[in-house]
## 1
Amino acid sequence: MIPVSRPFLPPLEDYNNLINKLWDSKWLTNNGHYAQDLERKLKDYLTVPSLHFVSSGTLALQLSLRTLNISNEVITTPFSFVATTTSILWENCTPIFVDINPQTLCIDANKIEEAISDKTEAILATHVYGIPCDVEKIEQIAKKYDLRVIYDAAHAFGVRYKGKSLLNYGDISTLSFHATKLYHTVEGGGIVNNLGEEVNRDIQMLRNFGFENGILQQLGINAKNSEFHAAMGLCNLKYIDYIIEERKNITKIYDSYLGELIQKPVIPNDVEYNYSYYPIIFESEEILLEIQKCLEQISIESRRYFNPSLNTLPYLNEKIQCQYSEDISKRILCLPLYNGLDSDVVEKIAHTILERIK
Ligand SMILES: *Cc1c(COP(=O)(O)O)cnc(C)c1O
């Protein structure tokens, strides 16, 4: 079976070299040497003011809402992974869904203002597939209404916009380093804080039970990550340029067959993209299902990412309609894209799709 994604693995020797040292030091977690080293290296690579390594992208989102004291309505996107919404609910806040721009599939910034009430405290939007939200417009709205901005940048590792890291936009950006992501630490996440030292301190306490210098200062949780995860991150970071380059090449092969004939999300100008996913949009759900079945018959997995639209989740109290998101989530399919994916397989996938849509 060709999977839809497969984790990049560094040479085992690289990883073993780092792990061997843990047998000597016996320091396995709690802000160890590797975790600190990884934070420094990621901060430099991503050119961001701070980076906190945590146990998952989901905890990164939850800690971000906590540290900004968000406790009421949060304007958010219905087109994302479920964790974007669950983090809002888990923090006892109310998600207010605003429909997406049908081109970029990110939240439609032009529809945000009409969703703002006197209970709105923040905007939590996803740079979906690594495509930047309309960050300028969102910043303008946030200033006008005094709202906090958190970006779920789980897909946006390495993406640059107008010459700087996309993670520099907003008050906080969160990353996921899960094994299925472009860059991974097996499990893990990151918080990029653009608000300065006080918030950094807070994040450090929150992820470590509320401790600071051995004293319990506030209500925290365990969102630390281990030396084993950090070691994987250090190994993988050495290959990140190669990882992105190879994915770019695979994307180009797909594009050469499908580019003109199939609808894809639109990447705006001034973006240095990371080639994290290869989503395509079909004319109808029926065609999607038919093609997914044809691919399955030749042992190729594809993924309905994202489906369903998050405004339709069964555990929401209030239903808010989002026409574009509900429609597109039924018609969008992600094709296999990972390091080591053979160009012959890409060709076969493209032909299988072309046969059905022509
Ligand atoms: C993967 C993902 C998350 C969750 O990250 P985990 O590390 O798996 O907790 C959150 N948001 C988006 C958009 C994601 O793709």
Note: The first helix runs from residue 12 to 25.
## 2
Amino acid sequence: MSDQHSFETLAIHAGQEADPLTGAVVPPIYQVSTYKQDGVGGLRGGYEYSRSANPTRTALEENLAALEGGVRGLAFASGLAAEDTLLRTLLAPGDHVVIPNDAYGGTFRLFAKVVSRWGVEWSVANTSSPDAVRAAIRPETKAVWVETPSNPLLGITDIAAVAGVAHEAGAKLVVDNTFASPYLQQPLSLGADVVVHSTTKYMGGHSDVVGGALITADTGLGEELAYHQNAMGAVAGPFDSWLTLRGIKTLAVRMDRHTANAERVVDLLVSHPKVTQVYYPGLPEHPLHEVAAKQMRAFGGMVSFRVAGGEEAAVEVCNRAKLFTLGESLGGVESLIEHPGRMTHASVAGSQLEVPADLVRASVGIESADDLLADLTQALG
Ligand SMILES: *Cc1c(COP(=O)(O)O)cnc(C)c1O
């Protein structure tokens, strides 16, 4: 599949040539651990053992690379498995990483509680400000980690500007592109070295699979990451790869609808008397709206807001919602609502990443927007 094709076409066809044996138009689920060799070392198509490579996973990995405009895609058992593999590829004891002051709680926990035990230093910066990133960089800094839009406050980082700051210091820029998906934003084209995904979210899109991905446009780094993927072993299984590929086929149409519905939800929230603040990069009053408009095709389906009356009022909104299902995760076709302080971001309590107690996060699904607005209206009371 040529890179010249547009995104929607690549999503459906990249990495998915008809099966050579049968012509099956969808890559089969190769539920297999090992492969017959034609004489010692005579591998068919390079397949030897399914931790090293599996045809269903290869199909997904080629698709991921095409969608992000990279040369190498790698699929993992979860987003955090992908992050762990990346960190242990890029970093050694004594190295330093700059991490954002607003990020997925599990990413923060991986740095603060796991990777730090191996002698890797980290410091927190407001990555929305390239100057703050520059100030946080040390001689030992090997990577700058960015999440944009960020979870849960929908903060925006100027990817091209921060790539410049990181590269000046000889550090790599990692962008967690989970909230945007490659349909809305392509960090490699803006100078990022590696893109991270929790494919559990928009890529899979149906709340039925946990997975992660790394994509790079650097052939050498791609080789190193693939070496560690095999050496560490946190690979995506064949069925999970297949489900993710199936989800990705509709990514473009889903993201368009997620965005359209989120814009309706934002319109309701900004004029609602019980809502004190709305976080959405599409709002002109968002401090980095212009940057978001420059680097994103549209603003996506995630919306956070603060509720008058504090933590209890925010928890009540979550409890009263009916069509918005109370639950963690995001990016599925069904709308979800949650209280970050007590749920997804409980692990950042007391840290520099602590989130407001009166915050509610909504993952706006692709149901009827009218039904979604009616549910939020009753939940806000
Ligand atoms: C969910 C999430 C992760 C972690 O991915 P898992 O698949 O849950 O391991 C990382 N980054 C962001 C932005 C996420 O939302």
Note: Residues 78-80, 104, 106-107, 147, 151, 176, 178-179, 198, 200-201, 210, 212 surround pyridoxal-5'-phosphate (CB under 6 Å).
